[in-house]
Amino acid sequence: MINEFIVVEGKRDAEAVLRALEANCIITF
Fold it and tell me: What's the first-to-final CA gap in the chain, in angstroms?
């Protein structure tokens, strides 16, 4: 159940994570 939850949430949060990383890159650099 945990793995399935991670996969589903991972797909939903993939864009949010990428955006956060991009924001961090912009702030850092």
Answer: 39
